[in-house]
Each structure stands twice: as structure tokens, then as C-alpha cells.
Design brief:
The complex is a heterodimer of chains A (403) and B (231).
Chain A lengths: L2 H14 L1 H39 L3 E6 L3 H5 L7 H9 L6 E16 L2 E10 L4 H4 L2 E5 L4 H5 L4 E5 H8 L9 E4 L2 E10 L6 H5 L2 E4 H9 L6 E6 L5 H15 L10 E5 H44 L1 H9 L4 H38 L7 H27 L3 H6 L2
Chain B lengths: L7 E11 L5 E12 L4 E5 L6 H8 L7 E6 L2 E2 L5 H11 E4 L11 H11 L4 H14 L15 H13 L5 E5 L7 H16 L3 E5 L3 H4 L4 E6 L2 E7 L1
Parallel strand pairs in B: 3-8, 3-9, 6-7, 7-8
Antiparallel strand pairs in B: 1-2, 1-4, 4-5, 9-10
The chains are: A alpha+beta (403), B alpha/beta (231).
The complex binds adenosine-5'-diphosphate and magnesium ion.
Magnesium ion binds next to helix 1 of chain B.
Chain lengths: 403, 231
């Protein structure tokens, strides 16, 4: 069998009826396009989240006050600096690296004749271990700043720009937070796409000062814990849960009055959503492929009827059943694979446009492409088989005499 | 010395076509015939007399309803459809009155087709197809599409294709039926040349001057041989 010759012939046959061929391919094109589009966008989204998480690192987790998400809004205040100290110093928690409490509150800031409401973040000298800032000027908070409750502030790069203008070093300047003066000791910039702009618009002060001067009480919105060994992070989370339940006098029946979430949790949630979505779209495009396949079968049946005399002639000059079967099958497969390739091109272009509009990475999945080519050939074989067999089994004389 | 086995031997062959109303039509009505290797036979008869049916049976495109067909001494009933296809491919060449070529396909690709089914390499196919086209003086049209050449040229290409596998039998069903007298003569001269080189030719026609090219003329009426005359 000369497959090259047969494929060439098939392309010729399909070119004879450009309109018909294109319409027939439509179902395949739509099916493949949507699969490629969704798989690419889904993988782009996962990559976006993964990149985002790894810009902070996956070696940490977060403890928040309250039993659920709403407790933070309603001002739940169940975490204390003593909890922080306990986690830091517990001798059994050997995997714990840094423990960083954060206290958040918006406040009125005046400096350089500017007057703005800015998010103030009270934290400790360890915060850069997780936030990974780029220090543009001066330095981040020191541990002495906290122990001596010094009125010092590190400005986020955008906050610094708001008050002091672009490319200006504000260290040594004074700002007022709720009327109290603070000395600016540094400027920090944050790259992260998700949290970067919030952080860069914040002002960081020692957490003790935050409690006393800005919150008016000891109030912790989150405790970030980084670990030495990421592999053991879940064990560490469990251990801290036990420790905190014990410290908070929670009995068997009582729910946690705090929540622990790790970067891994977020990632696996995103992955679950993405794979669910992919599955759903795969099912929908599966239907589209079946509809496309039935279209291919229909057109192939028409083609067999139209070319009955041709089949008779081919049989007269020595074509065996297998030869005729192969020719029609290849025609069907060429049609569906061609549709598949168009679908791949459309899907990838669509994914490129969507990802650049939404701002997620553009991911081309080689697996999805191979799968698309495989699936479209399979559709061609499955739905081309019946018409091809019908052609192959025509008796030579009936075919030749057909009018 | 063993008795010589005839190339084609038909014994009381009938062909009955079933009709829609449950009746049937008797197209061949007990035909017996022997054709030896190298003969040039013309089969004549009025339209509907069963000439084409006869040729289709001899060409293994159709099977007799009753009777026997021995090709080179072997009953064709014993062949599978693939074996029949193989014999048609290698041992029988066909030229029909019309619809001889694949349209929108080049002349040379048409001639190459039987060789493709025979599993001959592309290189060899091209060479042999060009040789065959040269013999019927149409090699200058090799790359033309078959629907862009004249009727006489089409028949010459059909002869080239029929001969490219060097079959022992050439079956031609009114090959000049659509051609003018001059072109008909040219085509018949090509067929005569093939017969001179040893190919057995069975030619269907209803024109006396075309039949005159043959060395033996058989007349069929109502599915029966009425005369069988050798020159
Ligand atoms: N498949 C068929 N079904 C019914 N009748 C047929 C069929 N094929 C041929 N015939 C009939 O058989 C007769 C002989 O046909 P054919 O062999 O083509 O004659 P010829 O070639 O001599 O004109 C014609 O009357 C034709 O109508
Ligand atoms: Mg006829």
C-alpha cells in the first residue's frame, strides 16, 4: 500500500469540495478548539498560581484568628503574641523556622503636605523571610525596633511614591500616623502579581508600636510560620494545631478558634477546580466531536454514493476490498485530522489572546495537542469505517453499472 | 502430449438479473465459447443483446448464474474476491466506452494506478507508465488532468492503462463508441498492434468496419451466439 499516494489522492478529493469539506470539519474544529483552549487556559491559571505561591515560597503556612473566614471580618481576636512566642519556643516544633505575626489596620498618614489613608502593617524583623521584599532604600524593621517599641516605619515603594514622589530616598524623613510622628528607615518593593500592589502600598511598623499606637489593643490578623523542611509541613501544621488547641483550652467537642492554611492548600484547590473544569469541557467537546463524527460519516456516505462508478472502475483495474477501504478511511481521517489541526491552531491562538488579556502565563500543552491529533484521527477512523466498508464491499459490476 | 488448455472456456453460461417485481431478466442464455491465446475476437450484436454482460463475466467483474467459466483451465468459481481482483489487476486489461479515467487526476496517475495496486514502486510506476503512454503516442499529455483531454486521447490513455501490467487479455467494450471515424481507426490500430504482440483481444462493437479489425467475429442476439465466423 502506498499511503503517501493515497493521502495525496485524499487531499485532492477533499479539495474538490472545499465548502462541503469545511462544513463537515466544523464539528471537529469546534470540539478540538474548545479542548485546547480550556486546557491551555487551565494550565496557565495553575502556572500563575504556582508562580505566585513560589514567589512567596511554599515553605510556609498561615494561621488566622476565628473559626471561619467571617470571623476575621467580625473582628475575631483569638491569636496573641504569647501564642507566637509559644510556637517559637516549643522544643518539639523543630521544623519551625520563622514565626511572623502581622497586625493590620488602615490609618491616616500625613507627610510632606500629603494626607492619605494607608494600610498599616505591624510586624517583626522576620517578615522579609516570607514577603521577600526588595529593599530600595535603608533597611527593614530590626528586632530592636520592636523590643524598644521605636516609632519607625518602612514604607512600601508605592506608598513612598505617594508621599515623597518617584525615585526619592525618604529615609530620615518623618511621617505622622494618626498624628504620631514616625521616622522613615527604609523603602521596600514587592514583586508578587497578586499581593505586590497591596504590600507596596502599605507602611510597616513594629508590631508592639502597632498594638499600642494604632490598634489600641493586641490584635493579630495572621501568624505566618515558615518551616525548614517543606516535606514535613503537614506534620508541623498538625503539631501547631494541637499546641494552640491546648493553649486556647479547647476540649474534644470544641471547634478550632483559628484556621491554618498552607500554600499547598490553595494550589490543590486551584488544581481541583481546573481539573473539574477541564473534565466538564472535555465532556462538552466530546459531544461536539461525536456530532462532528456523524457529519463526517454522512458526508463519506454521500461521497461513496457519488463515486460508485469510480469504485467500480478501481475494482476493474485490480483494487482489492482492502485498497478501497483504506482509501476511504484515509479520506475520512485526513478530513478529521485537518479539522483537528485547524482546531489546535484556533485553540492556541485563542488561549494566547485570553491569557494576555487576563494576565496569566501562556501555556501550550504538548499532551493536549497530541491528544487532539489522536482523538481527531480516532473520530475519522470510527466514523469513516462504516462508509469505507460500504464502498469496499460494493460488487464491481453493481458499481460499474451504477447510474 | 497433454491437450492444450484454452485461455478462455465458457460452458453453457447464463446470466439472469433479478428485477424489482420479483421477475428476472435473462441477459445470457446458455453461451459456450472457447478463445485461444492470441486471438482477436469481435463480439457484435444489437443493443441490449447481452454483449456487455458477456464481457463482464469474461473479465471477472460478474459471475455466471449457471454454467462454467474456465480461465486458463481453472474454474473461476474457486477464486476469492481478492484473488479475482488480483487476476483483473495482472491478467486482464479493460477499456470501456466511457468513464474510463479518474477525473481531476493526471493522465500518468491514472496509468500508474493498477501498478499501485500491484505494489510496484513509485519509480518503476512512473517509468512504465511513461513507456505505455509513449506506445499510444500520448506521453506529451502525461501531466494533464484527465478531464482536460479529448475523447480520443482518453481512449488512448485507457489503452495505456489497460496494457501497463502486460495482461494476457484485453477486453474492450465499444472503445470507439464515442469517437469519430478517423480517431476510431487510430484507436483500433493501437489495439491491433497489441494483438500482434500476443495479447488476446476481445472487442465489443456494433460497427462492421470496427469489427473488421478482428480475426474472428461472433454475433449475439438475445443472449445467444448466433454466428461465430473466423476469417
Ligand atoms: N443489473 C441489471 N439488472 C437488470 N437488468 C440488467 C442489468 N444489467 C443489464 N441488464 C439488462 O440486460 C440486458 C443486456 O445488457 P447488456 O449486457 O448491457 O447489453 P449490451 O451491452 O449488448 O447492450 C439489457 O436488456 C439490460 O437492460
Ligand atoms: Mg453494452
Amino acid at each position: 500500500m502506498d499511503y503517501r499516494e493515497i493521502v495525496k489522492t485524499s487531499l485532492q478529493v477533499l479539495r474538490r469540495n472545499v465548502m462541503r469539506t469545511s462544513l463537515t470539519m466544523l464539528g471537529i474544529i469546534i470540539g478540538i478548539t474548545s479542548v485546547i483552549l480550556i486546557v491551555s487556559i487551565g494550565q496557565g491559571a495553575v502556572k500563575f498560581i504556582t508562580d505566585e505561591l513560589s514567589s512567596f515560597g511554599t515553605d510556609y503556612f498561615q494561621i488566622s484568628p476565628g473559626a471561619d473566614q467571617f470571623s476575621t471580618l467580625t473582628g475575631s481576636n483569638t491569636l496573641t503574641l504569647d501564642d507566637v512566642e509559644a510556637i517559637k519556643t516549643d522544643p518539639s516544633l523543630t521544623n519551625v523556622n520563622k514565626v511572623i505575626p502581622v497586625s493590620l489596620q488602615a490609618a491616616r498618614v500625613t507627610a510632606n503636605d500629603e494626607d492619605e489613608t494607608v494600610n498599616i502593617s505591624g510586624t517583626t524583623t522576620d517578615a522579609p523571610a516570607i514577603l521577600r521584599p526588595e529593599i530600595l532604600y535603608g533597611e527593614f524593621l530590626s528586632s530592636e525596633n520592636n523590643t524598644a517599641s521605636e516609632h519607625v516605619a518602612v514604607m512600601g515603594s508605592d506608598a513612598s511614591e505617594t508621599f515623597f514622589g518617584e525615585d526619592t530616598n525618604p529615609t530620615g524623613e518623618r511621617i505622622r500616623i494618626n498624628g504620631t510622628p514616625y521616622l522613615v528607615i527604609g523603602v521596600a518593593h514587592f514583586e508578587s502579581a497578586l499581593a505586590g500592589s497591596v504590600l507596596s502600598n502599605s507602611i510597616f511598623v513594629p508590631i508592639n508600636v502597632m498594638f499600642r499606637e494604632i490598634q489600641g489593643q493586641e490584635r493579630i490578623q495572621e501568624i505566618n510560620v515558615s518551616v525548614h523542611n517543606t516535606e514535613l509541613i503537614n506534620q508541623t501544621i498538625d503539631d501547631i494545631e494541637v499546641l494552640l488547641r491546648d493553649r486556647h483550652d479547647l476540649n474534644e467537642g470544641n471547634e478550632n478558634d483559628f484556621r491554618i492554611s498552607s500554600a499547598q492548600d490553595i494550589l490543590s484547590t486551584v488544581e481541583t477546580i481546573t481539573s473539574l473544569l477541564t473534565l466538564m469541557i472535555a465532556a462538552i467537546s466530546g459531544i461536539s466531536l461525536i456530532v462532528g463524527g456523524v457529519g463526517v460519516m454522512n458526508i463519506m456516505l454521500v461521497s461513496v454514493t457519488e463515486r460508485t462508478k469510480e469504485i467500480g472502475l478501481l475494482k476493474a483495474i485490480g483494487a482489492k476490498e482492502k485498497d478501497i477501504l483504506t482509501q476511504f478511511l484515509i479520506e475520512a481521517v485526513v478530513m478529521t485530522v485537518f479539522g483537528g489541526i485547524i482546531g489546535i491552531i484556533l485553540g492556541i491562538s485563542g488561549a494566547f489572546v485570553v491569557s494576555s488579556l487576563v494576565g496569566i502565563p501562556f501555556v501550550v500543552s504538548p499532551v493536549a495537542i497530541l491528544l487532539a491529533v489522536g482523538v481527531s484521527s480516532l473520530v475519522g477512523i470510527a466514523f469513516g469505517l462504516y462508509p469505507a466498508r460500504k464502498a469496499a464491499r460494493l460488487s464491481p459490476i453493481d458499481a460499474l453499472r451504477y447510474e | 502430449m497433454a491437450t492444450k488448455i484454452p485461455l478462455i472456456k465458457l460452458e453453457k453460461v447464463t446470466k439472469r438479473y433479478p428485477l424489482a417485481d420479483g421477475e428476472s431478466y435473462q441477459a445470457l442464455n446458455g453461451v459456450s465459447l472457447i478463445v485461444e491465446k492470441g486471438e482477436f475476437v469481435a463480439i457484435m450484436g444489437p443493443s441490449g443483446s447481452g454483449k456487455s454482460t458477456f464481457m463482464h463475466i469474461m473479465g471477472l467483474l460478474d459471475i455466471p448464474s449457471t454454467g462454467k467459466y474456465l480461465l486458463k483451465g481453472k474454474d473461476v468459481k474457486s477464486y476469492t474476491s481478492d484473488e479475482l481482483a488480483d487476476i483483473r489487476n495482472k491478467d486482464i486489461g479493460f477499456v470501456f466506452q466511457s468513464f474510463n479515467l479518474l477525473s481531476r487526476t493526471t493522465v500518468i496517475k491514472n496509468v500508474e494506478r493498477p501498478m499501485m495496486y500491484a505494489g510496484i514502486s513509485q519509480e518503476e510506476r512512473t517509468k512504465r507508465a511513461m513507456d505505455a503512454l509513449r506506445l499510444v503516442q500520448i506521453d506529451n499529455k502525461a501531466e494533464n488532468l484527465s478531464n482536460h483531454i479529448s475523447g480520443g486521447q482518453i481512449q488512448r490513455v485507457a489503452i495505456a492503462r489497460a496494457m501497463v501490467m502486460e495482461p494476457s487479455i484485453l477486453l474492450a467494450d465499444e472503445p470507439t463508441g464515442n469517437l469519430d471515424t478517423k480517431t476510431s481507426k487510430e484507436i483500433m490500430n493501437h489495439i491491433k498492434d497489441l494483438n500482434k504482440k500476443g495479447t488476446t483481444v476481445i472487442l465489443i462493437t456494433h460497427e462492421e468496419d470496427i469489427a473488421d479489425f478482428a480475426k474472428r467475429i461472433i454475433k449475439i442476439v438475445d443472449g445467444k451466439i448466433v454466428t461465430d465466423r473466423k476469417k
